[in-house]
Design brief:
The protein has about 230 residues and is of the alpha+beta class. The chain is built from six helices and twelve strands. The strands form three sheets. The protein has a five-stranded antiparallel beta sheet. A four-stranded mixed beta sheet has the order 2-3-6-5, with no helix packed on it. A hairpin with a 2-residue loop joins β2 and β3. α4 packs antiparallel against α5. The chain starts with a strand and ends with a helix.
Length: about 230
C-alpha cells in the first residue's frame, strides 16, 4: 500500500453546496473523498462520468474499479493540529434568478396540465476563497504521478493545487459513507461508527466524516480496494 501526503491549496473560488443557511447555501468545511476521486479520474482522463440525464449516483460502479482512494481533505487545525479550523469564505453573493417548475412542482392537481410556471428565486451563495489549505492522504496500490492542479466543485469551476508533503504528520479523516456504501465493509463501518471521535459530522447522505483515524484503520478500511 502506497501512501502520499497531500497539501491542497485553493487557487480559485471553490463552490460546494452542503450546508443550508437561511435563504442560501454554504460550502462544506472539507473537500470530500468522493469529489477528490472523481476529480483525479477526470484529470487523468481515465473515464467519463458525465452522462446527460443521469439522476442517481453510481459511486460503486464508477469508483471501485480504480485502485486508489483519498481521505477527506480537512483544514489545517484538524489535519496537522495548528492553523484554521474552517476555510475562509468570500462575501455572500446574492443571486436573482427566474426558475421554471412544471405542474408536478405546483399545488395544481396533476391532471391540470398547466405547463411551466415561472417564479422568482432569490438566494445567496458563498465560495471557499483562494489560498485556503486542506490536507489529505492518497492511498494507492502503486505510486501515482499526480497532476499539479485538480478541478473541483460545482461544475468543476474551482481549481485546487496539489503539493506532496513528506515531513508533515497528517491526521487522516475518513468518510463512513464510502466505507459502508461504496466499499461495502459493514463490519468496519459498524465498529468505526460506534467509536467516539474528536470530529464526528454527518453533513449529507454521502458524507459522514469522522476522525482522526489511525493508519491501521486506513489499512482495514481500504484494504482489498487498493
Amino acid at each position: 500500500m502506497n501512501i502520499q501526503k497531500l497539501r491542497l491549496i485553493t487557487l480559485s473560488p471553490l463552490n460546494y453546496y452542503y450546508t443550508e443557511a437561511g435563504s442560501g447555501m454554504l460550502p462544506s468545511n472539507f473537500i470530500g473523498d468522493i469529489a477528490l476521486k472523481y476529480a483525479l479520474l477526470h484529470q487523468l482522463g481515465l473515464d467519463n462520468f458525465f452522462q446527460p440525464g443521469k439522476r442517481n449516483p453510481t459511486y460503486q460502479e464508477d469508483l471501485v474499479p480504480y485502485k486508489f482512494w483519498f481521505t477527506v481533505a480537512m483544514p489545517p487545525f484538524f489535519s496537522i493540529g495548528k492553523g484554521e479550523s474552517t476555510p475562509e469564505l468570500t462575501k455572500p453573493i446574492k443571486r436573482n434568478t427566474m426558475q421554471g417548475i412544471d405542474y408536478n412542482g405546483t399545488n395544481v392537481h396533476p391532471l391540470v396540465r398547466t405547463g411551466s410556471i415561472m417564479y422568482k428565486n432569490f438566494y445567496f451563495q458563498q465560495f471557499i476563497k483562494p489560498g485556503n489549505i486542506f490536507y489529505s492522504i492518497l492511498i494507492s496500490k502503486e505510486h501515482l504521478e499526480l497532476p499539479q492542479v485538480l478541478r473541483l466543485g460545482t461544475g468543476k469551476t474551482g481549481m485546487v493545487k496539489i503539493e506532496i508533503v513528506e515531513n508533515i504528520d497528517i491526521k487522516p479523516y475518513i468518510n463512513l459513507y464510502t466505507i459502508k456504501n461504496i466499499l461495502k465493509k459493514d463490519e468496519i463501518y459498524k465498529r468505526l461508527s460506534k467509536r467516539e471521535f474528536t470530529y464526528f459530522e454527518h453533513f449529507l447522505l454521502q458524507y459522514f466524516v469522522v476522525g482522526p483515524v489511525s493508519m491501521k484503520d486506513i489499512e482495514e478500511s481500504y484494504g482489498g480496494y487498493v
